């Protein structure tokens, strides 16, 4: 039995009542928060900054811890623990080549949204999202 938990660091960016979600070329129909797995020895905020730079060409501004959530990982067949930071942006995100899509959502919006985002992050942010 494996007890490995996938550790993920991610950003909740809300602008004008909408949450930023992305999908990757590897799974273009699955939408989730920008972010990813830490490299060895990397601190959470370093992972956040690296992933946001790599995926969106932006620097996280005033990251604030939002929550640590656990759920089934969307792409790997593994349990995932994801630490989410509420992040402001001062630049317009420009999706890098590894991304397939970028959307601003107020709810699931008919998309295939990763379980942790659908069941935990969207409910946590509900008050800040447009209806
Ligand atoms: N970034 C991110 N990953 C999530 C979320 N929800 C969720 O289940 N995951 C899953 C998807 C993948 O199974 C895993 C993260 O993988 P990833 O492929 O985005 O991470 P990465 O950029 O570090 O990956 P890699 O290409 O270096 O392997 O966590 C989420 O909201 N954001």
TrEMBL record:
Pfam families in the cross-refs: NUDIX
Tell me the cofactors it needs: Mg(2+)
Per its UniProt record, what InterPro entries does this chain match?
Answer: MutT-like, NUDIX_hydrolase-like_dom_sf, NUDIX_hydrolase_CS, NUDIX_hydrolase_dom
Q: Which PROSITE patterns does this one have?
A: NUDIX (PS51462), NUDIX_BOX (PS00893)
Where in this chain does the record put each Nudix hydrolase domain?
1-127
SUPFAM superfamilies linked to this entry: Nudix
Q: State the name under which the record lists this protein.
A: 8-oxo-dGTP diphosphatase
